[in-house]
């Protein structure tokens, strides 16, 4: 059982999302400026500061703390920065596996796996295509479902 | 056309159901995939000679059954041929006690208010007001010498409680739970006085058993037992009750007869003393906040009779809340047997013990926030086989011991 991190490109994706949010905040700041320059300034500075902290510090921690270990019949996922979450999902409990890929993820060679159990879904986000294939083959073959 | 379009057949291997006028829909459910069946024999359909059948499978989403069917009262639903043994019969005294502990004014008022409004919509404003005045008992309370405002509030509380009590009594009156005599896997639950309901499932379809105790039930040393399977909670007001307010001895005995109680739980992890504060923090903050507010109001001279009444009501409630949280902290534990996990925790104002067969656990999630990391505690959440993401969580257990126990559970899958 080898511990693997999610794709290194996930950092790029998260930073892109943060920049998108920062652009949105810039629009809101512009709109607020019409009503009150002080509130707009405070909001603008706060949002820029939060975005920079997110991009420079949080993303690195997120990447370091998101890992998974694939064994012959189970998958252990550890994720979360402020709220650490440890999930072990057995192959026999998986009903089917779904993969989601946004255009940006496709460009960066990543996707998100949704592991469906009876009544719940476990997400394994931003893993590389090769990692996803390995997970699907290992878990679904143990499940007896064949390849999806 | 709608009536003619519906047909059903109970085959050897599966249940067939067809419906739809313009868009025909055919449903075939193999019997092995049926998790539960609910038969509702309510008062109004009974007048027309009908009853409602709902068949639930793992594909039933949220509150919608896989099959919804109106059948004739004379239609035999198949279970009349199976000999059944009464395992548990809720005595009238127990149902009365349960209704007393379950009832609350707010739910009664929520039931009553739309009825009064609907009467007004159908019959007119005059009848709505007459009905409202029928339920308004504040004048009678005021005659005893209580101030009008307090009489008005007391009237609402009493009427709400009485309505809630009556509804629960009628909903759970004549409560019986059966097991199939030859085929002991069946669990059949009958309940209701005017609106009768029958719930049918198999022992192996039960995902979890919950034993709940409210504060009042704790004082009386009684608990109620509920089952969790696909199809429970689909009917409005259904609490999936298996055993009404009974003592621990009766509950253990009844569960053993249903073959639902594992014999011995080991590896018990109790709440560490350092985590007790996390249970008590919220009510203590409220207590400190209320005391501070009281002091400020007295200091600024705003201590009117209404404010005094609010504080007289609020302080005992907060103190009861603190005592409840203390009991919850004492009782909280996680333990394991050969084939089940037992979680003792609290949910809203109920102390709950949940027994989950290991085979029904889908996965376990162990969570730790920053403060829990420092205190070496964690939260554990068990997700069970269900149609709607059902899980059971216990908070602030010792991290190392919990991980060991969770690994044992995962090995046993």
Explain what you see.
- The complex is a heterodimer of chains A (148) and B (413).
- Chain A is an alpha+beta fold.
- Chain A is built from four helices and seven strands.
- Chain A has two domains: 2-64; 68-143, PH-domain like (Roll).
- Helix content of chain A is 51%, strand content 28%.
- In chain A, the strands form two sheets. A four-stranded antiparallel β-sheet of chain A has the order 1-2-3-4. A three-stranded antiparallel β-sheet of chain A has the order 5-6-7.
- Chain A starts with a strand and ends in a 5-residue tail after the last helix.
- The mean pLDDT of chain A is 90.
- Chain B is an alpha+beta fold.
- Helix content of chain B is 40%, strand content 32%.
- Chain B has helices at residues 2-5, 43-47, 92-102, 105-123, 125-135, 138-142, 148-172, 215-220, 248-257, 276-299, 305-331, 370-375, 399-411, and strands at residues 7-10, 14-19, 25-30, 34-41, 50-57, 67-72, 84-89, 176-180, 186-191, 196-202, 208-214, 223-228, 241-246, 266-270, 333-336, 340-347, 350-357, 361-369, 377-384, 391-398.
- Chain B is globular, with a radius of gyration of 25 Å.
- The chains are: A alpha+beta (148), B alpha+beta (413).
- At the A-B interface, β4 of A face β18 and α13 of B.
- β4 of chain A pairs antiparallel with β18 of chain B, so a sheet runs across the interface.
